[in-house]
Design a protein that fits this description.
The protein contains seven helices and twelve strands. The chain is an alpha/beta fold and 257 residues long. Helix 6 links the parallel strand 10 and strand 11. Helix 1 runs parallel beside helix 7 and helix 5 packs across helix 6. It binds NADP nicotinamide-adenine-dinucleotide phosphate (NAP). NADP nicotinamide-adenine-dinucleotide phosphate (NAP) binds next to strand 2, helix 2 and helix 3.
Length: 257
């Protein structure tokens, strides 16, 4: 079965690795190309945009793709809109893998925000030492609140023109441990953390560290993300694909698109 997996997440790579060991599946992983030095991937990879939904549908037809798997990040909505439209146009089923959101637990001091702009405002007027863990692409939203001292953690450096005036960059790729996060927060005098509600385990240690130190976390809620048949784990995605390839997936049980 020829699959296109839209990736850029740990789950996409894990699913690809799992399918790579099964010769019934022939997966290609697609990355947007945001990271200049992406981690090595276990299956053939294509990199860069398709040129919208039409381009993706054309690419799938050209490659004889039989199933589309959208395993992109919970905050990546445009690619998921394209996936829904392209799956329909190409007449292939769409499986969407989105990890569950983090839930506030006892002792968490979360401040809810609906957007990056909201998150910047939620930091308040008093200057604070703020750790931004939102990736590198959207840090410009914090230029509107230049009174804070920012520590920005990302895999690759943000564009210089996107930076608030008082910024230190920390180039790191997860996963992170709780002990290391506590040590970082102490060393850097972090007073507030800003995070997208990405979910998953690779970067969850910052939340436990914030809880331990009694620090507030400005948590940005997920946007609505269009989906096909929706699953939350790599296991569930693999089970669905297994059922699909064995012909055991009854059409009426499919949800979504
Ligand atoms: P987005 O806003 O939903 O998509 C913007 C455009 O980028 C899409 O229209 C598409 O271009 C291209 N694109 C996105 N993902 C692609 C993929 N996997 N393969 C090929 N083209 C892709 O996406 P984004 O939020 O910028 O995310 C880009 C990538 O980073 C995704 O792979 C995502 O999983 C990963 N990521 C995002 C975040 C985040 O916070 N947003 C965090 C971690 C990882 P065309 O229309 O030209 O096809």
């Amino acid at each position: 079965m020829r699959l296109l997996i839209l990736g850029g997440t740990t789950e996409a790579s894990t699913l690809a690795r799992r399918l790579a060991g099964d010769d019934r599946f022939s997966p290609t992983l697609s990355l947007a190309g945001r990271t200049l030095s992406p981690a090595a991937q276990p299956v053939p990879c294509r990199i860069g945009g398709f040129g919208g939904a039409d381009g993706m549908a054309r690419w799938m037809r050209g490659e004889g793709i039989e199933v589309l798997v959208d395993a992109t990040h919970a905050f990546s909505t445009r690619i998921s809109e394209n996936a829904v439209a392209a799956a329909k146009a190409a007449g292939v089923p769409l499986l969407s893998l989105v990890r569950p959101a983090w839930a506030r637990g006892a002792g968490d001091l979360w401040i809810d925000a609906d957007s990056l702009g909201d998150a910047a405002l939620a930091l308040g007027e008093m200057p604070r030492r703020v750790l931004l863990t939102i990736g590198r692409q959207e840090v410009a939203a914090f230029k509107a609140e230049p009174q804070h001292r920012y520590l920005i953690r990302s895999i690759e450096p943000p564009e210089p023109g996107d930076l608030p005036p008082d910024t230190k960059i920390l180039l790191q790729r997860g996963p992170f441990s709780q002990d290391d996060e506590v040590a970082l927060f102490r060393r850097e005098g972090v007073e507030t953390i800003v995070s997208k509600n990405a979910g998953g385990t690779a970067t969850a240690a910052k939340l436990a560290a914030a809880r331990t130190l009694g620090l507030p976390v400005v948590m940005i809620a997920r946007p609505d993300k269009p989906a096909g048949y929706l699953v939350e784990t790599v296991d569930a995605a693999a089970d669905w694909l297994e059922a699909k390839i064995s012909g055991h997936l009854a059409a009426p049980s499919e949800r979504g698109v």
